[in-house]
Amino acid sequence: MTARFHNICIDCHDPYALAGFWAQVFGCLREARPGDSEAILRPEGSPVLLFLAVPEDKAVKNRLHLDLEPIDRTRAQEVARLIKIGATHVADHTRPDGSGWFVLADPAGNEFCVLRSVAERLQHD
Q: Which of 59, 17, 24 is CA-nearest to residue 38?
């Protein structure tokens, strides 16, 4: 027997608000109402994201995180867009040759990485 992803769960205090941020990231609709204990996103070509209300605060670095790849812009342009919609800068691990990644955090403090786009990788490979 094997298994497959059903969804990726993200614990947070306010599922509606956090799903709203990620809906902007992925350009998809948020399935929830304010005050709901869960919210769902169904980004095209990606696993379903399920945001769940929990009482605990985030206390340590994520043990699992998302890596994002810009589709129609550069990594720098995507990082700027994500910061504009509510992400915060955590660390820049880009290298002089353009490889590496940029670490951001969503409004709940969950870290995620932004990689180079396919076009950027092809320019340097």
A: 17
Q: Could you give the CA distance from residue 69 to residue 101 in angstroms, rounded to a whole number?
A: 10
**Spatial separation of the C-alpha atoms in residues 125 and 103, rounded to whole Å:** 23
Mean pLDDT per 10-residue run, the chain (125 residues)? Answer: 91 97 97 96 94 92 92 96 98 94 96 93 77
Tell me the pTM. Answer: 0.92
Domains of the chain, first to last: 1-56 (3.30.720.120), 65-125 (3.10.180.10)
Q: Angle at Cα 28 formed by Cα 114 and Cα 58, nearest 5°?
A: 55
Residue with tokens 């769902």: 40
